[in-house]
Design brief:
- The protein is of the alpha+beta class.
- It has 3 helices and 7 strands, in the order H-H-H-E-E-E-E-E-E-E.
- The longest helix is centred in the first third of the chain and has 21 residues.
């Protein structure tokens, strides 16, 4: 995520803007353009807050917990949840199931170290994802099965009560 600025940096920028306005004597309530400046500042703060609340990837970009995208499909016999967890291995993922909820937590830590002649580099990465989903039907938690292939987690959850769908003709 190139170009994103951490939330703390925005707060520091906002404080610096306020101090700068005060230094120029613009903090005076009688300044005729101050209401417009405040409106712009409030609008920018609202845009940042909206972005943080709505974007599933924004949290991870700012160092918090990412919320991976998921698809939930219901058939007559089961509920199938597909979730993108790129770069995660089986050992990085924890899955908890109740009768009506699926909770997935994943955490990856990696260190890479390269040594060459007159060259040294060591890199560390950390990624954490969490997602809790309300399931559309009651499932048998003890019969759940999961697989991970190419960064895509697929969880099959058999339903407690199998539902048969019946087509209805329009008369």
């Amino acid at each position: 995520m190139t170009g994103l600025v951490p939330r703390d940096d925005f707060k520091r920028l906002q404080n610096r803007m306020n101090r700068l306005l005060e230094e120029f004597g613009i903090s005076d309530a009688e300044a005729r353009y101050m209401p417009e400046v405040r409106k712009i500042q409030d609008k920018m703060n609202q845009l940042i807050d909206d972005f943080m609340a709505e974007s599933p990837t924004a949290a991870g970009a700012f160092g918090d917990v990412m919320k991976p995208l998921a698809d939930v499909k219901e058939t007559d016999e089961e509920v199938i949840v597909t979730m993108d967890l790129p770069g995660m291995d089986k050992g990085d993922i924890e899955i908890n199931v109740t009768e009506d909820t699926l909770e997935v937590k994943a955490e990856r830590k990696a260190e890479k170290e390269e040594k060459e002649e007159e060259f040294y580099r060591k890199e560390r990465t950390f990624a954490r994802c969490e997602r809790s989903l309300k399931l559309p039907a009651e499932v048998k938690a003890d019969e759940a099965k999961a697989s991970l292939k190419d960064g895509v987690l697929e969880v099959h959850l058999p339903k407690v009560a199998v539902t048969a769908r019946k087509k209805v003709k329009i008369e």
